[in-house]
Design brief:
0% strand
């Protein structure tokens, strides 16, 4: 988002003179109360549907605290009508996701998914590394599909039962396999073609659902590669807190650099707009750095430095030089019949 803000030259929103975030929170902070009430109602044992209904009723009552925006009958009708129109994309997305999940469960594919994933990876060769990479990739896609229409917790539980055995059978540590599944269960909320979190955000803000999904997916794309780091490489397990303090620090630092490089590749921005060559080098650097092996890290650093070097040279060539005469004095144009003073 920071890259897009710089790319499109977004300016900060300036409020009225004398206003501050703390004063605005004190004035309008009561609007956040229903969100906390939903959590409180669910913690008290109420079903999610009832919790949302009660929180909505509370929001209706709180609107009368502000005379300018209180819910009169006309405003209530307009709000309900707008809410019905805004929820349609979310309903369609949930319905499509439900069909996908129903097909997976009713056909029995889910129960045999672990063996299907391993067998599919084995079709591309007998090399253990290739099979592991493909199995991890297929597992990530499978978890994303399972998480299309169910909450994160349910998605994790289902995937842990039917997909984790595929990873464990290839020597992946138990804590790495389950963290990998949990990671992608969370990311399924922002994964096309459903991306329920993005669809809900588009309904609230009035944005285009598909464009919001694509933008959300682009912003979270670096996070999709991090689980591969702690599953495919020995040093990657240190990202989960296993190993020495020094190992945890350096793997975290290298991974952060890799995520930054991938963000530059997907966002098309370094110190300024990046061209295709620089973005390609940043993508290569990110993939090499996330492998977290000495040779791969060295190659990634070289690719990233090369991308920055090309970017800086190009920016310097595009910056118009100001001709000067003497000490930092702009050159004066000599026209016919006139001498510079």
């Amino acid at each position: 988002m920071e890259i897009d803000a710089r790319k499109h030259q977004a300016q900060p929103v300036v409020g009225e003179k004398g206003t501050s975030a703390l004063r605005l929170l004190g004035r309008f902070g009561y609007h956040f109360l229903p969100l906390f009430m939903i959590i409180g109602f669910m913690a008290a044992g109420l079903p999610p549907f009832k919790a949302v209904v009660y929180a909505t009723a509370l929001q209706f009552l709180l609107s009368f605290l502000d005379p300018e925006h209180r819910m009169t009958p006309r405003r209530l009708y307009a709000a309900l009508a707008e809410g019905c129109r805004s929820v349609l994309p979310v309903v369609a997305t949930c319905a499509a996701a439900g069909i996908i999940v129903a097909v997976v469960t009713q056909t029995g594919l889910g129960l045999s998914l672990a063996s299907v994933i391993v067998d599919a990876a084995g079709l591309f060769g007998d090399d253990k590394t290739v099979v592991l990479v493909l199995t991890v990739f297929f597992a990530a896609v499978s978890v994303s599909i399972l998480g299309l229409a169910v909450p994160v917790t349910a998605s994790f539980i289902i995937a842990a039962v039917i997909i984790a055995p595929a990873l464990l059978s290839l020597g992946v540590a138990t804590h790495e396999a389950y963290m990998f599944i949990f990671y992608y269960a969370v990311l399924s909320e922002v994964s096309p073609p459903t991306a329920l979190a993005a669809a809900a955000a588009a309904a609230i803000t009035g944005g285009n659902p598909m464009r919001t999904m694509v933008a959300t997916w682009k912003y979270s794309l670096p996070a999709f590669l991090v689980p591969f780091a702690f599953v495919l490489t020995d040093n990657g397990s240190q990202l989960l807190g296993t190993g020495s303090l020094v190992g945890i620090v350096w793997t975290t630092a290298i991974s952060a650099l890799a995520v930054a490089a991938l963000a530059a590749a997907t966002g098309g921005w370094l110190l300024g707009p990046a061209r295709r060559v620089e973005r390609t080098l940043c993508a290569v650097a990110a993939l090499c750095l996330l492998y977290l092996e000495p040779v791969a890290i060295a190659a990634g650093v070289v690719a990233l430095v090369l991308a920055l070097g090309i970017h800086l040279v190009r920016r310097r060539q595009q910056t118009p030089a100001v001709p000067t005469t003497g000490e930092n004095r702009p050159a004066e144009t000599i026209t016919e019949g006139h001498l510079p003073s």
